[in-house]
Amino acid sequence: MGGNPKLKVRLDKIRENASRVVNLCKGAGIEAGGVTKGMCGNVSVARAMLEGGCAFLGDSRLKNIAILKREGLQTTFMLLRLPMASEMTDVVSYVDVSLISMPETIKLLDDTCMALGLNHDVIVMVDVGDLREGIWPVSAEIEEMARALKASRKVRCIGVGTNVGCFGGVLPSSANLGHLLEVGHELERSLGYELRVYSGGGTSSLALVEDNTMPSGINQLRIGEAILLGSDITGKRLISHLHQDTLRLVAEVIEVRRKPSVPIGTIGADAFGNVPQFNDRGMRLRAILAIGRQDVRPEGITPLDRGVYVLGASSDHLIVDVEEMDHKLTVGDTLEFEVNYGAMLAAATSPYVEVVMEER
Ligand SMILES: *Cc1c(COP(=O)(O)O)cnc(C)c1O
Q: What does the pLDDT average to over 137-148?
């Protein structure tokens, strides 16, 4: 097929990001796993993370993990989204460690393990305030989980974990991660054995490692964004010691014409039901690129060329203002864009975007 739009991946930079994150964490006694879901479980990206030294791989989708296993990647696989009751057989078959928060799930995993003659490790998720997954950190809920774990024959609890900076945008801190440690210690007392893993979050938790405020006892992080993009969207920062030029989105020009900057006629709503707003800047040179909402999240892309401004997008068309570009675009030219996490996720998942590996 034609080859555009495409997402170019600099594997060498992703490998280097992984290695820098792994070494930073190692200095604080923390193991770092690589999270592949942002790139839809791409096999080459996953391999680069392992070559960079990641201790394990995590993904939120069972399908991605199954593909990585089938491709022969040798590592521990962690399922990052709480497992569904309808996928238990695949979970215990493909996944080494699941994150869980419900006693029912422990029972379902354990029954499935018994039926298939397998064992399974779990990490109990604790909600320290972000209001996504996890038990509420009160004794009744800790005890309830301990009871379900003690009753299970094949499911073993290896640790506790938390997720911050996702739904509620809550930043990790020594206070909320300290809370995770306390819950883990209480669970250890109820279970009567020590927990090996204290999993303290994702990319946003790296800031605590960098400024030496990570509570001692937290010994694992699950890192996606920092390795894939060198950024920390929750902490609103670029991570200066990592590469940001890991991914480039390429889209092709299919029209270049000078047009008014305000539509002519009565404005209804756009193709997505939003009423668009326009500033009158007179006649402007505009290009249409053959990429749209089926391929990417247009709000999350930034043109690399000076003088290019994204005006908007429909399902299949991206409109850019190119009046101030220093050379004239023609049909068949391409423009390149940086992507943020949401745009990467959409592009990597879209069947219309070709993912192309580069190595330098
Ligand atoms: C996505 C995810 C991660 C990785 O998050 P990043 O911010 O990309 O590092 C870690 N843990 C869980 C449970 C996740 O869902």
A: 97
